Every structure is written in structure tokens, then in C-alpha cells.
From TrEMBL:
Gene Ontology cellular-component terms listed: plasma membrane
Organism encoding this protein: Rhizobium favelukesii
EC number: 7.6.2.9
Catalytic activity: a quaternary ammonium(out) + ATP + H2O = a quaternary ammonium(in) + ADP + phosphate + H(+)
All copies of domain ABC transporter, residue ranges: 38-274
Name of protein: Quaternary amine transport ATP-binding protein
Cross-referenced Pfam families: ABC_tran, CBS
A GO biological process held by the record: response to osmotic stress
Lineage: Bacteria, Pseudomonadati, Pseudomonadota, Alphaproteobacteria, Hyphomicrobiales
PANTHER family linked: GLYCINE BETAINE/PROLINE BETAINE TRANSPORT SYSTEM ATP-BINDING PROTEIN PROV, GLYCINE BETAINE_PROLINE BETAINE TRANSPORT SYSTEM ATP-BINDING PROTEIN PROV
GO MF entry, a single one: ABC-type quaternary ammonium compound transporting activity
């Protein structure tokens, strides 16, 4: 499998003004939307058509986990299905690695799905009479890869998701979380560049869910994959995503990092979502560190060069873990080979106090 690519700005998926209108008169409805700017309600009333996705544009860059968040019915599944042409748009374009997927032949489309884009659904739909290994190898079987080779690849993918000991079992012997792992292994076995996940963890218990969220993020990053991850849970989006797009009534109303969205919600709707989110997510090494001179003033005998190091973007989980692991009471924050600050347990606690007391106005 490939490792992370240096060019992180390369756009892998580019959606341009995508629309999906469902219904018999969708073409006429689309015309009126363009001509008269009809809204979702009017389209339903005048044409008996449902607007699934409305003028959505987004770019997924190489190496990033892009989350799409919205309530049930906001158009998330419709949007993600447009990305690999499981459905075709009523208007607008999807470019995958610069190629307009509307122009692909059936063979090219199959190739693209096999090589560039893998998908994991909310209910993984494992084949009940096949073993875990056969299920994980299924995508490769469809591609016509020999049994020996596909089993070897599927086995490696199952190992990656922690199911090495379960290859010969059947789906009904597995818990829900493990079945989702098989689904992920099946997607990973084809070694796609981009993984599409439609609410894969929504049906799981909170504890398992959190564990899978962390594992998924780590796995995606360590394999150098890119992902589009759908969820109706903003906490999950923040935990997993590098960037988040928030959908409402088929439209994307805000795209940004968790920090950008929490600190600067685009409208009341987003603000309401954000109100329930803990500000602890916003703690980063750069926001709680002391300057080097400040640190040296209070700890004149401390040797900064021998401190454990981290990056300015390290989050609270990482900062706590490093603090617990280190026998010194400080962590050096390094940017471009330069120590730009020092995080102390005290500074970290001050940060926690500040952000939990703070609200949007203060931030
Ligand atoms: P989400 O995944 O965010 O819950 P969906 O993308 O499934 O939302 O649905 C968005 C809207 O499109 C909803 O109003 C839904 O009823 C409608 N919709 C989705 N699929 C179809 C379809 N095949 N035919 C008609 N309407 C659909
Ligand atoms: Mg859905």
C-alpha cells in the first residue's frame, strides 16, 4: 500500500455546483430552479420532485479526511453517491483526479470505483454464507483477481483492522463493530486512494464507536488515504475530520476546519449545532504554549533541547499523553525545526479552564 503523498494540496475530488432532483419531472424542475431560483418546497409543490442535493460544491484534497455532517434527510447520502456515480447529477460536475466522471465509459467507471474510490455503507451487508475472509475479498473477486492473490490481500487488510484471528468465522459470529471492520477491510483490500464512508459507525454503541473513530483516523492517515466520511453527529465529524462540510436541505452551508466552524458558525443553524460542542476540541499546542523566554524565566535550569517534542497542531489528547509519558514537566513545541514554545501541565490546565468557561463571544 502507498504511503502519504507530499502534495497535500492535490484535489482528488472536485464537485462543482452539484444538483440532484428526484422525481419524474426532475429535468423540468431543474430548468425552473435555474431560471427562477425555485426552492426545495416550491419544487415539491410545483413539480412533485424532491431536491436531494442543491448546488453543492466541495473539494477533497489528497490525504485529508473530509466529513459531511447534517441531519437525517439533509442530502448526505445523495451527495456521496454522486461522487462515485452510483447516481447521476441533475446538474453540475464531479471531477475525480481531474476527470469528469460523467464522461467515463462503464468499464472506466468500474475501474475508477475499483482503483480510486472504495465505499463503506452504514449497514455493511456482509454475505452471510461466506467467511470473513471471503467477504473481505469480495471486491477483489468482482474485479476477477485470482483466489490466491485476493485471499492474501484480504488477509492483510483484515490484519490492518485487527481481525486477523477471525478470517474463518462467519458474519453472524461477529459483533456489529467487527462487522464494520470487515466492511472497512473489504474497502481497503482494493487499496483505493479515496474511501467513501456513509455513516459507518452510526448503529454502534458509543464506546465501540469512539474506538473505531480513532482507529479509522489513524489507519487512514498511516495508509496515506483520503476519505469522505458522512455523519449526523458533529462530535464525530470533529473527532475524525480534517475539514467538515455542514449540509442543510441539500445545500452545503459551511465548510471549514472544526476550529473555523466552532468559532465562526455561518448561521444560526450551525451555531445551534456548535453550542453543544465542548471547546476542549479547540485546544492545540500553539494555543496553550508559553513562549520560550517565559518558560526559561520560571525554569532557568531546564534544558529545552532535551524535552519531548510535538507540533503546534498537537491536540489535547496528544498533549496529555505526551505529558504522562514524559518524566519532565514540559513539552517543546517545534515548528520548522525551531522550538517555538513550551507546553507545561499548568499551561494545559489553564487552557482547559479558559476554553470551558469561554463561550463563542470570548473566543
Ligand atoms: P441523508 O443521507 O442526509 O439522510 P438523503 O441523501 O438520503 O439524506 O436524502 C435527501 C433527500 O432526498 C430526502 O428528502 C430524501 O427523501 C430524498 N431522496 C433520497 N433518495 C431519493 C430517491 N431515490 N427518490 C426520491 N427522493 C429521494
Ligand atoms: Mg443517509
Amino acid at each position: 500500500m502507498k504511503t502519504a503523498n507530499a502534495d497535500t494540496n492535490e484535489v482528488l475530488i472536485d464537485c462543482q455546483s452539484l444538483w440532484k432532483v428526484f422525481g419524474d419531472k426532475s429535468a423540468a424542475a431543474m430548468k425552473s430552479i435555474n431560471a427562477r431560483g425555485l426552492g426545495k418546497k416550491q419544487v415539491l409543490k410545483e413539480y412533485n420532485c424532491v431536491v436531494g442535493v442543491a448546488n453543492a460544491s466541495l473539494q477533497v484534497r489528497r490525504g485529508e479526511i473530509f466529513c459531511i455532517m447534517g441531519l437525517s434527510g439533509s442530502g448526505k447520502s445523495t451527495l456521496i453517491r454522486l461522487l462515485n456515480k452510483l447516481i447521476t447529477p441533475s446538474s453540475g460536475k464531479v471531477l475525480v483526479k481531474g476527470r469528469d466522471i460523467a464522461a467515463l465509459s462503464p468499464v472506466e467507471l468500474r475501474q475508477m470505483r475499483a482503483m480510486n474510490i472504495g465505499m463503506v455503507f452504514q449497514s455493511v451487508a456482509l454475505l452471510p454464507h461466506r467467511t470473513v475472509l471471503e467477504n473481505a475479498a469480495f471486491g477483489l473477486e468482482v474485479q476477477g483477481i485470482s483466489k490466491l492473490e485476493r485471499n492474501k490481500t484480504a488477509k492483510a487488510a483484515l490484519e490492518t483492522v485487527g481481525l486477523a484471528d477471525w478470517v474463518d468465522r462467519y458474519p453472524n459470529e461477529l459483533s456489529g463493530g467487527m462487522q464494520q471492520r470487515v466492511g472497512l477491510a473489504r474497502a481497503l483490500a482494493s487499496d483505493p486512494e479515496i474511501i467513501l464512508m456513509d455513516e459507518p459507525f452510526s448503529a454502534l454503541d458509543p464506546l465501540i464507536r469512539r474506538q473505531l473513530q480513532d482507529e479509522f483516523r489513524q489507519l487512514t492517515k498511516s495508509l496515506g488515504k483520503s476519505a469522505v466520511f458522512i455523519t449526523h453527529d458533529l462530535d464525530e465529524a470533529i473527532r475524525i475530520g480534517d475539514r467538515i462540510a455542514i449540509m442543510k436541505d441539500g445545500a452545503i452551508i459551511q465548510t471549514g476546519t472544526a476550529e473555523e466552524i466552532i468559532l465562526n458558525p455561518a448561521d444560526d443553524y450551525v451555531a445551534e449545532f456548535v453550542a453543544g460542542i465542548s471547546r476542549l476540541h479547540l485546544i492545540k499546542a500553539h494555543s496553550v504554549m508559553h513562549s520560550v523566554t517565559e518558560f526559561q524565566r520560571s525554569e532557568p535550569n531546564s534544558d529545552i533541547s532535551s524535552l519531548v517534542r510535538t507540533t503546534p497542531d498537537a491536540d489535547i489528547d496528544e498533549l496529555i499523553t505526551l505529558t504522562m509519558q514524559s518524566d519532565r514537566d514540559a513539552i517543546a513545541v517545534v515548528d520548522n525545526d525551531q522550538v517555538v514554545g513550551v507546553v507545561t501541565p499548568r499551561g494545559l490546565l489553564m487552557g482547559v479552564k479558559g476554553t470551558s468557561n469561554n463561550d463563542r463571544a470570548a473566543a
